[in-house]
Amino acid sequence: MHLKSLKVFCDVVSRRSFSRAADENGISQSGASQVVHHLEEHLGVKLLDRSKRPFLLTSEGEVFYDGCRKLVEKYFTLEDEVRTLHSEVAGRVRVASIYSVGLHLMDRYLQEFLTRYPKANVRLEYLHPHRVYEAIDADQADIGLVSYPKSSRLLKAIPWRDEPMALVCAPQHRFAHRDRLTLEELAGERVVGFDDGLTIRREIDRVLTQHDVEVQVVMEFDNIETIKRAIEINAGVSLLPAPTVLREVEVGTLCAVPLVGNELIRPLGIIHRRGKNLGTTVRRFIEMLQRVGRDVPQAAHNGAPLAAQTSLEGMSPPVELRHSMNAAD
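Below the sequence we write its predicted structure tokens.
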């Protein structure tokens, strides 16, 4: 019984899909199905109940999956450690991130890491916030990058960095050329806000209420990218994490005005599964994130960025990028 077969089986179960598992392992969908079939023949039991849609694990399949997942995880950790003994970091890192961390920031982190460890393999996938947690829980990713991180019985959250919020508006708005603003000056403003169910919206509402500020919410969205597009057409202003508008401020399509007192902060964190033996490469990546994250540039007002953003030019491969929903917090 080959380790690759066990990994294919684990990927089929964790991703609830033969096609996605096949893509993950560089084989055809029918190939993934045959792997599971051969395992069932070898064990003499049914591992999956295919009469249900989506399929379900049988009781035997649950026991086999739990053991296989631990075995595959231990092997990749061992492989990483052996390579490290040869003085090189050459393992893999699977990162699931909320979209608003942004390619413009991840470029910098990936270039830093792959310049130092050119043989490392990094896979970066952008997901809806709740999917990031699910990916960590299902061992589809080694670490997750989320805002307002939450620890749980199964997941551990590590503080990463705090992002100050800024008033973001169109260049033609009367606030565009202000050096700074107080929250009280937002009273009565037309605001493009986040959906009610998002943590970032609840935090903004809490701080505005503390300052007795009422605004007129004219639009609500569940992701920062759509909010930025609405601000660009001057539909209203918004309170957004300053680093998320770096590109727009650079090219002059948006302006970011600092807030007096800096009370609104979006915390970002790194999450991973408790009890998981993080390999050397994953640990090095976390250390790099914490080190580089302290120096993240913030968007300045009046269209003048504080620092030029980095690019992927000259980056050492391999890096795999995957995209999903662009949710905000």
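The radius of gyration is 23 Å.
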